[in-house]
Amino acid sequence: MAKYSTVWRTKGVASLVSSQLLARFPFGLMSVAFVMHVYATQHSYAIAGIALGAESIANGISGPILARALGRFGVRRTLVISMFISAAALLAMAFWVAPPLIVIALSALVGFASPPIQTTARTAYPSKVSGSGLTTLFALDANLQEIIWVLGPILATSLAAGLGTWSAITFMAVGMSSGTLWFIANDAVKSLKLPRPNKSMLTVLKKPMVLANALTGFFLIGGFSGVEVGAVAILPKVTAGLVIGALSVGSIIGGFGIGHRLKSAKFLPVMLGISAFGYMLTFITPTEPLWMATAWFISGLGVAPALGLLGALIGHQLDAGDSSEAYGWINTAQVTGYSAAAAVSGILVETVSPVAPIALSVVFAVGAILLSLWVVRHSPTEAHA
């Protein structure tokens, strides 16, 4: 904890990390809020899953595009314009009971225009700390972002139960906008100047480390949607939020307990193995809330350490110009994995059983382990090297 405290006290770090977490926090409500709101207005889990998938696919497509826009049009301009478009689409979803195709289109617009907050923040981190401190900062970022996934589902289900599903979507629009404006006000963001892209958009993917990192993220993040859609389909709203939050509580504990100690990529398969094991445990009693929460807590213990390692490996090996595009592609891979699993999960609920999406999470978790071996192969011996 002393290492985290030292990095946190570095000038500008606390504000930079806090503001980007606030800007991204509303998207911790995304999966649960979208599934509940679209189901409430369209009365179909399949449409809800497709809408969530459309948001994620569009966000995945826009990842490298907006990352390049940061250098071409400027960081602040790109963030402000994308923020306004995404917030407007969210508000339209909240207050307009539109036909299914319009709902899916609005969901896609939310995703495509989502401000590239995480890409910008991770590109700015090396301007604040270096060496082993950068590894610790990435671990801290991965740990703290789990607050999003602990509180997000709980807040989404609480708002939906108390005020209606529209309130969760509205909160997302307001929270994203206020957080983005605070983030832009940080000196590290104001002074961040990225080179204009002069290479093909695919060039950075030719680096084996980037491609391996992105594909591992595809399966790691994809696994989350199965348990989230499954929980919403199996359990009452508020209970589902609490059970999903247990995974993130485990991730926070795992991150703060060992995240900063993992200096080598060789630990990545181990952390992902813990996550896969937790998902598998669910099937002992897959509809009992307390057991589901316990199993997903165990699964979460490996998540933040794995994400911290993946982020730090890119931050150490690439310069600012390449790293912004790399993080854009990594985000694309992660949200594409999530969207693919979300769309399939919604269909599985209606065609197989509410428990089926959790089995899909196991498949994705095993895929992440296999891909992580490729990451290890193309990584330096030490993550801080």
Could you walk me through the main structural features you see in this protein, from its secondary elements to its overall organization?
By secondary structure, the chain is an all-alpha fold. The chain is 78% helix and 0% strand. The chain has a single domain (2-195, 203-377), classed as MFS general substrate transporter like domains (Growth Hormone, Chain: A, Up-down Bundle), CATH 1.20.1250. It has helices at residues 2-8, 13-24, 30-42, 45-72, 75-95, 100-112, 117-124, 132-162, 165-184, 187-190, 208-234, 237-258, 268-281, 289-300, 303-317, 320-351, 356-377. The chain starts with a helix and ends in an 8-residue tail after the last helix. 63% of the residues are buried.
The CATH architecture classification is: Up-down Bundle
CATH superfamily name?
MFS general substrate transporter like domains
Domain unit count: 1
Major sheet summary line: none
Beta-strand residue fraction: under 5%
Q: Helices and strands: which structural class?
A: mainly alpha
Helix count, per DSSP? 17
Query: Shape, please?
Result: globular
String of helices and strands:
HHHHHHHHHHHHHHHHH
Task: List low-confidence stretches.
Answer: none
Count of extended strands: 0
- CATH C-level class is Mainly Alpha
Mean of the pLDDT scores?
A: 84
CA gyration radius, whole angstroms: 19 Å
Give the helix level as a range of percent. over 70%
Under CATH, the topology can be stated as Growth Hormone, Chain: A
CA(first)-CA(last) distance:
22 Å
This entry's quaternary arrangement is single chain
